[in-house]
Amino acid sequence: QVQLVESGGGLVQAGGSLRLSCAASGNSGNIVSANAMMNWYRRAPGKQRELVASITNRGTTTYADSVKGRFTISRDNAKDTVYLQMNSLKPEDTAVYYCNAHYVVEDYWGQGTQVTVSS
Questions:
Q1: What is the pLDDT of residues 86-105, one digit of tens each?
Q2: Which helix (H) or strand (E) holds 98?
Q3: H/E element holding 78?
Protein backbone atom coordinates (compact mmCIF):
# COMPACT_ATOMS: atom_id res chain seq x y z
CA GLN A 1 0.00 0.00 0.00
CA VAL A 2 1.16 3.52 -0.84
CA GLN A 3 0.11 6.85 0.59
CA LEU A 4 0.95 10.19 -0.99
CA VAL A 5 0.72 13.33 1.12
CA GLU A 6 1.01 16.78 -0.42
CA SER A 7 2.00 19.91 1.44
CA GLY A 8 3.12 23.44 0.71
CA GLY A 9 0.00 24.97 -0.75
CA GLY A 10 -1.35 28.31 0.34
CA LEU A 11 -2.25 31.85 -0.61
CA VAL A 12 0.29 33.92 -2.51
CA GLN A 13 0.24 37.13 -4.51
CA ALA A 14 0.75 37.11 -8.26
CA GLY A 15 4.45 36.92 -9.05
CA GLY A 16 5.20 34.98 -5.89
CA SER A 17 6.49 31.47 -5.37
CA LEU A 18 5.47 28.29 -3.62
CA ARG A 19 7.05 24.87 -3.33
CA LEU A 20 4.80 21.85 -3.13
CA SER A 21 6.01 18.58 -1.67
CA CYS A 22 4.64 15.08 -2.08
CA ALA A 23 5.87 12.46 0.35
CA ALA A 24 5.32 8.76 -0.29
CA SER A 25 4.87 6.32 2.55
CA GLY A 26 3.47 2.88 3.22
CA ASN A 27 4.72 -0.62 2.73
CA SER A 28 5.69 0.05 -0.87
CA GLY A 29 6.16 3.78 -0.65
CA ASN A 30 9.89 3.76 -1.21
CA ILE A 31 9.64 1.37 -4.13
CA VAL A 32 6.99 3.42 -5.84
CA SER A 33 8.61 6.77 -5.22
CA ALA A 34 11.95 5.55 -6.59
CA ASN A 35 10.58 3.84 -9.69
CA ALA A 36 7.28 5.44 -10.58
CA MET A 37 6.53 8.18 -13.02
CA MET A 38 5.64 11.01 -10.66
CA ASN A 39 3.19 13.66 -11.76
CA TRP A 40 1.60 16.83 -10.54
CA TYR A 41 -1.94 17.53 -11.69
CA ARG A 42 -4.22 20.41 -10.90
CA ARG A 43 -7.94 21.06 -11.04
CA ALA A 44 -9.22 24.60 -11.15
CA PRO A 45 -12.85 25.40 -10.32
CA GLY A 46 -15.10 24.53 -13.24
CA LYS A 47 -12.26 23.05 -15.28
CA GLN A 48 -10.98 19.60 -16.07
CA ARG A 49 -7.99 18.11 -14.36
CA GLU A 50 -4.75 19.17 -16.04
CA LEU A 51 -1.37 17.46 -16.07
CA VAL A 52 1.10 20.11 -14.97
CA ALA A 53 4.47 18.33 -14.77
CA SER A 54 5.97 14.85 -14.85
CA ILE A 55 9.28 13.30 -13.91
CA THR A 56 10.46 9.81 -14.78
CA ASN A 57 12.45 7.57 -12.47
CA ARG A 58 15.54 8.67 -14.37
CA GLY A 59 14.77 12.35 -13.92
CA THR A 60 13.41 13.26 -17.34
CA THR A 61 10.88 16.05 -16.98
CA THR A 62 7.98 17.34 -19.04
CA TYR A 63 5.71 20.32 -18.48
CA ALA A 64 2.43 21.74 -19.64
CA ASP A 65 2.93 24.71 -21.95
CA SER A 66 1.14 26.93 -19.46
CA VAL A 67 3.83 26.41 -16.80
CA LYS A 68 7.02 25.97 -18.84
CA GLY A 69 9.78 28.22 -17.61
CA ARG A 70 7.96 28.92 -14.33
CA PHE A 71 7.53 25.51 -12.66
CA THR A 72 10.17 22.91 -11.89
CA ILE A 73 9.51 19.33 -10.86
CA SER A 74 12.16 17.35 -9.03
CA ARG A 75 12.46 14.22 -6.92
CA ASP A 76 14.56 13.10 -4.01
CA ASN A 77 14.44 9.32 -3.96
CA ALA A 78 16.34 9.16 -0.68
CA LYS A 79 13.47 11.06 0.93
CA ASP A 80 10.69 9.42 -1.11
CA THR A 81 9.57 12.90 -2.04
CA VAL A 82 8.76 14.80 -5.21
CA TYR A 83 8.62 18.59 -5.39
CA LEU A 84 7.02 21.22 -7.55
CA GLN A 85 8.72 24.60 -7.39
CA MET A 86 6.32 27.23 -8.69
CA ASN A 87 7.65 30.68 -9.55
CA SER A 88 6.08 33.73 -11.15
CA LEU A 89 2.67 32.50 -10.10
CA LYS A 90 -0.39 33.83 -11.87
CA PRO A 91 -4.04 33.98 -10.78
CA GLU A 92 -4.81 31.32 -13.39
CA ASP A 93 -2.55 28.92 -11.48
CA THR A 94 -5.18 28.84 -8.73
CA ALA A 95 -6.27 25.24 -8.30
CA VAL A 96 -6.09 22.17 -6.13
CA TYR A 97 -2.80 20.45 -6.90
CA TYR A 98 -2.58 16.66 -6.73
CA CYS A 99 0.42 14.39 -6.63
CA ASN A 100 0.19 11.18 -8.66
CA ALA A 101 2.42 8.15 -8.85
CA HIS A 102 2.03 5.92 -11.87
CA TYR A 103 3.73 2.59 -11.23
CA VAL A 104 3.30 -0.36 -13.58
CA VAL A 105 -0.51 -0.47 -13.87
CA GLU A 106 -1.31 1.29 -10.62
CA ASP A 107 -2.11 4.92 -9.95
CA TYR A 108 -1.79 6.45 -6.51
CA TRP A 109 -3.12 9.88 -5.58
CA GLY A 110 -2.65 12.33 -2.79
CA GLN A 111 -5.48 14.26 -1.19
CA GLY A 112 -4.57 17.53 -2.87
CA THR A 113 -3.33 20.88 -1.67
CA GLN A 114 -4.96 24.22 -2.45
CA VAL A 115 -2.96 26.91 -4.22
CA THR A 116 -4.57 30.33 -4.46
CA VAL A 117 -2.90 33.18 -6.33
CA SER A 118 -4.33 36.64 -5.78
CA SER A 119 -4.04 39.41 -8.34
A1: 999 999 999 999 999 998 88
A2: strand 95-103
A3: none
- Rounded CA-CA distance 103/108 in Å is 8
Backbone φ, ψ for residue 34 (5° rounding): -85, -25
Q: How many CB atoms lie within 10 A of CB 108?
A: 21
How much is the average pLDDT of 61-89?
96
Half-sphere exposure at residue 13, Cβ-oriented, CA atoms within 13 angstroms: 0
89, 117 Cβ separation under 8 angstroms: yes
Alpha carbon 112 to its chain centroid, in Å, reads 9
d(CA 112, CA 30): 20
Category of 59 on φ-ψ map: left (φ > 0), alpha (ψ -120 to 50) or beta: left
Picking from 49, 113, 36, the residue whose alpha carbon sits closest to that of residue 81 is 36
List the beta bridge partners of residue 106.
103
* Total length of the chain: 119
Secondary structure string (H, E, C) spanning 22-67: EEEECCCHHHHHHHCEEEEEEECCCCCCEEEEEECCCCCEEECCCC
